[in-house]
Design goal:
With 233 residues, the protein is mostly helical.
Length: 233
């Protein structure tokens, strides 16, 4: 208990002293995950919309596939992309392995199934006839789409926050694709894994506190937005 208490106090000291090494790790983690979710979100929601309102062969298979991919381990995604990006892989010539770009690709692959599945569920709550009615009344496709998205904004927001929460906390794909290189690809989860394996708990606890604070803020923001929306409804 004394060791844990000492490590916790040291962790707080690292956080509030502005330790450059620790906050650089936090910056890399947020930078990579934000870029990944910004790229994945429009793709994921577009796919979710197509699955919710489209009628085409293989639609049910694609919905089942998206739901199945929700449970795929991050390390499997990392291994798959590792084989693709390695020197012997089809994209080896691009030399993306052990770069932030490779980490972003891995996190996009992890975020997409979540965005598609949760986005599809949210969009299914709106009757398909709402889209058809808007189109019949002369609304453009873009205006009709905005109206539908606005109606399910809290469900889409939950999907977005859930996807961001998943990718910023995953370790398997980031470790395999980024290589945990100091000041370049070392993010919060890989740094926690490394420091814990060395018996250095202070930095790991400090970074864990950052993740817990982030999780709290994301959930607080979502509940605040939902409450505000209900009051104004």
């Amino acid at each position: 208990m004394e060791t844990i208490a000492n490590a916790s106090w040291q962790a707080l000291g690292l956080l509030f002293s502005g330790d450059p090494a620790l906050w650089h790790i936090v910056w890399i983690s947020f930078k990579v995950s934000l870029l990944a979710v910004l790229i994945a979100t429009p793709i994921g929601f577009a796919c979710a919309f197509a699955l919710a309102y489209g009628r085409f062969p293989g639609r049910r298979f694609l919905i089942t596939t998206a739901n199945t991919l929700l449970s795929i381990p991050a390390v499997v995604v990392g291994l798959t992309l590792y084989l693709i990006l390695s020197r012997q892989g089809p994209l080896g010539e691009l030399r993306l392995l052990f770069t932030q770009t490779a980490m972003i690709l891995g996190q996009i692959a992890l975020a997409l199934p979540l965005l598609i599945a949760m986005g599809h569920t949210a969009l299914q709550a709106i009757d398909r006839r709402a889209w058809e009615t808007a189109r019949m009344l002369g609304a453009s496709r873009w205006r009709s789409l905005r109206a539908i998205m606005f109606e399910v904004r809290f469900g889409l927001m939950a999907a977005l926050l859930a996807a961001f929460g998943r990718i910023i906390a995953e370790v398997g794909a980031s470790m395999m694709l980024g290589g945990n290189i100091l000041n370049y690809t070392r993010n919060i989860p890989t740094a926690i894994a490394l420091e814990t394996s060395k018996g250095e708990f202070a930095q790991g606890i400090a970074l864990g506190m950052v993740l817990l604070t982030l999780a709290f803020l994301l959930n607080f923001f979502l509940h605040y937005a939902q409450g505000k929306g209900q009051v104004g409804a």
